[in-house]
Amino acid sequence: MNRTAVDLLADNAGHARAFAGRFDEVQDGQQPEAVTVCCSDSRVLQDHVFGNDTPGRLFTCGNIGNRVVQRTDAGEAVSGDVLYPLAHAGTRTAVVVGHTGCGAVTAMYGALTGDFDADDEPAGIRHCVDLLAPHLEPGVDRLPDGLDDAEAVNRLVEYNVDRQVDHLLGSDDVPEETDVIGVVYDFQDVYGGERGEIHVINVDGERDPETLRAEHGAVADRIRRLWTY
C-alpha cells in the first residue's frame, strides 16, 4: 500500500478517536438539516467550510461543477443524490456551493469559446462538461466586455450556481417548502473579506444583492455578487 493510503488510514484513526461518541443519535437514521451540493475540487473542504463536525447534520453531495442535474430516460432531472434527503429524510434546505476558479466552469468556458476540446477528454469528463455547457452558454453571451479569462470564469461560477438553483426551484420533485440558497466559496481573494469565506448570491431565485440584504439582514454582510445580469 502506498504512503498516501497509509497516511489516510492514520488520519482516519485520529478521526475515529475524536468522533467515537458522536454517532449515538444517528446510528439508525438521519434527518439532515441541509443538503449541500459542492464542487468536488480538492480545495473545497465540503463539510469543513461550514465548520461541521456533527454526524447527521449535513447531507453532502459533490461533483465537478456542483451540478444538481442528471440525465435520465425522461430527460434532465434533479440528481438522485441531491434529491434523496429532500424526498426521504425531511431536509428542507438545499445549498448550492460554487467556488472561485472552478475547473469545471473553466473547462466549459474553454469549450464554448474554442480554447478547450472536450472531445479529447475521457467519456466521463465529456459527460460532465456536456451537462454544464447548455445551461451556461447563455451566460457566456452575457459577459461584460473587457474581462480576462479568470474574471469571466468567476462570473460564470455565479451564473452556474444560479442555474442550479433554478433547476431545483423548477422541479416538481423538490418539495415546495424547500429553501434553496446559492453561495460561492472564495479562496482567491475575489470577493474581499477572508479567504475561505462563503458569500450568498441567490436565495430562492432572488439575485439582487440589495433586495437580499433587505430581506436577510442577519447575513447582510455575507451577501455579495460579482455581477448582475
UniProtKB/TrEMBL annotation:
Its EC number is 4.2.1.1. It comes from the Archaea. The keyword Lyase applies. It is an enzyme of class 4 (lyase). It catalyses: hydrogencarbonate + H(+) = CO2 + H2O. Binds 1 zinc ion per subunit. Zn(2+) binds at residues 39, 99, 102. Its cofactor is Zn(2+). InterPro entries: Carbonic_anhydrase, Carbonic_anhydrase_sf. Keywords: Lyase, Metal-binding, Zinc. One of its GO terms (molecular function) is carbonate dehydratase activity. PANTHER family: CARBONIC ANHYDRASE. Belongs to the beta-class carbonic anhydrase family. This is carbonic anhydrase. It comes from Halobaculum magnesiiphilum.
